[in-house]
Design a protein that fits this description.
single chain, 72 residues, mainly alpha, 4 helices, flat
Length: 72
């Protein structure tokens, strides 16, 4: 689970058995992601392209106007 999902879901605790170093040793290293995030969208390893920004704006407006929304 990504850390953003953990924080946004308001999970109280996270438990794990292996640390990052042990995880890297078996081939699960996400350092490349942080390096990739620093690049412009058109230079990243995965194609990232914004489409239909007007639909995104409608969804954001609906959230903003929601009277009982949970603050993040």
């Amino acid at each position: 689970m990504c850390m953003s999902a953990i924080y946004w879901s308001r999970i109280d605790s996270v438990y794990f058995g292996s640390d990052l170093e042990a995880t890297r040793k078996i081939g699960f290293d996400d350092a490349f992601q942080y390096e990739d995030f620093q690049k412009p969208l058109d230079e990243r390893k995965i194609r990232i392209e914004q489409i239909y920004p007007e639909l995104g704006a409608q969804a954001y407006a609906a959230w903003t106007d929601k009277p009982n929304r949970h603050p993040y």
